[in-house]
Design brief:
Strand order of the largest sheet: 2-1-3-4
Number of strands: 4
CATH architecture: 3-Layer(aba) Sandwich
Distance between the termini: 12 Å
Helix content: 40-55%
CATH topology: Glutaredoxin
Structural class: alpha+beta
Number of helices: 3
Radius of gyration: 11 Å
Strand content: 15-25%
CATH class: Alpha Beta
Number of domains: 1
CATH superfamily: Glutaredoxin
């Protein structure tokens, strides 16, 4: 199973959508709220080069935003 990390904020609509998508498909993921965790916010920027959320890391692949096609391709869905 792929290792999935989601960097998100509570007010981000697309963050909620991607987390709901993973839950609907019973795909486990680790979620970090970058609005309250400065260390994880810095980690997100270092890994993605982006300040916007959501940032999704699937294994070593970085996805910025809820790119369903890219997520499905990486997970073999």
């Amino acid at each position: 199973m792929a290792k999935i990390t989601v960097y998100s904020t509570p007010t981000c609509m697309w963050c909620r959508k991607v987390k709901s998508y993973f839950k609907e498909h019973n795909i486990p993921f680790k979620d970090y709220d970058v609005s309250s965790n400065q260390e994880k916010a810095q980690e997100m920027v270092r890994k993605s080069g982006q300040m916007g959320v959501p940032v999704i890391i699937i294994d070593n692949s970085v996805i910025v935003g809820f790119d369903k096609n890219k997520i499905d391709n990486l997970l073999g869905l």
